[in-house]
Amino acid sequence: RTSQTSQTSGFRASILRAGSAITRTFSRSATQTSEDATPHMRRNTVGQNVLMRDGHAAAQAQRSDLTQDEKVSAQEEKFQRVLRELHQRSVFKVRSWKWWFSVFLRSPDFTSEIEDKWQRWYHENTICKKLESRLDRQSLALAILTAVEVFCCTFMDTLYSSGLAKEHWRGNDGMGMARLPLFLVCRGLSWVIIWTWQRLARAQHRLLRHPNEAQKLLAASFGLIAVLTLISYDAISEVRHVPYDEDVSEGAAVFNNETLREMMITHKRGSGVFALILFPVYFLVATQHQFRFIHTCIFWIIPLTMAGFWTQLCGAKGYNCNTYMSNSSKMMLCLICLLNSTMAWSGERNSRLRFLAQRSVQISRQRIDSIASTLMPPLVVEELRSLPLTAELPSHKYKRATIAQSDLCGFTKLASQRKPEEVVQFIGELFGKFDVLTDKHQVYKVETVGDAYIAGQADLPLTQKNHPTSVVLFGLEMVSEVHSWSAQRGWSVSCRVGIAHGECIGGIVGTEMQRYHLFGELMSELEVLESTAPEGCVQVSTACKEVVEDQMRAESIPSQLVSFDHRQLPHLMTSKGDVIPREKAGGATYIVRSDSIFRGWVGA
Q: What would you report as the CA-atom Rg of the chain, rounded to the nearest whole angstrom?
């Protein structure tokens, strides 16, 4: 019985443990489901699912013996599936108020910063591009069109029977001679608006530097020109009203009064000609500049308002307006302008997509350039760009190169007592400080090998400047930075630096992961100088000492900035006890001393 009781209790305990595990599983699933309700976590979940599926697919590919074609097709299918899932997950971002307010033009990729950059880019490359020449053509066309229309309506009696000498110019509606000044005033105001923008474009006015304000004002200006165009054509159109008996109905007057019938035909013919001319002129005013979609809407709102309030504007019988336009003509004008807005919408959408594509290419190019500049000297990168694809990789011979190499003393012992993550962090901190010094002294970072840091200056194209004293100061500050970093943490880590001067060869090594390396006997001397230098000191060769002193004398640099102590040793010895002849270091060696008060004299 006791054994049965213990077995029963053990079985119950296992059941309870299984139940608690299931409960934790369901709670994690519920938590994950609630987190998936937010867009950010949904994207993370998609990434996790993709990684899990990719890992599962990779495991299957390793277990199975697929051919190369099958592997390629599987990867392509996986890529397309990931794209579809990411697209479905990101659809929710499209339904934002900005997307609706921009009439489906502003995509989720357009943040406020990108929107401002696109507006400036569109303004400079579309609105302001050849703006002055477009305005010149518009001004000339307006002047010619106005002169031709005045000449035709005033002196060509074969087309119309009334002229400027008559009391009533273009109609008996009570305005009489006021119609000619009204026509000329409308055209004059239109010309003044265009002339004003001409002056602003020629002077590169600061108003044009503000894209949103300039585009709004330009669209409003040409909207006003469109209204003045409608008024001017109404003033120039001919209409003749013949009074008829009020007791006779309007229909009877039309069919019984021959004079009225003739005048109505003349009215339709005369005003219809200018209504036909109005269509292309109005369309040209609306399409001369590639406005944004929201700004082009003003050009179809104007004729739509005119069509909607035609009765109120021109009276019940149309006596207040001379331009004869049927309802179909008015709606056709609205549709033409609406078509222009549709084309502007399509153009703006393509412009936004083109801007995003160019921006992506530019960002990718900048990233590639930044990576290439860390692998090679900037001037070498520029040289590679200018070479054809089939050309051989360049190499360079440097006759006056000054290279420094550092080593961290005591770091190996410290690294053996630390975790790998901590070692990487320590190296990153120190090398980050060295990178700052390379920018300060304009020294090119050649490479890093373990805890060794190699940098220097030489002739073009390695560096823009070739001052050996700057390399020596760079080595001194490396020692100082390591000393300060070690003292802050209470560790016993120091730095020793070797600096050599002479000839070397630089070239690009590798096919896939290309790097720019230096070769020659100089690099061998450099390694000897670094390995035999005392801890916390900078050791230089005889050639380096002489070239630094020559530069100091030529540039009148105080001797307290850099001085040299000759090492009176029969031979050199490394920290491991290896004996190296001095000839391998280029002869006698020297320890660099410097007074910190005089730092910053040379390129620092």
A: 42
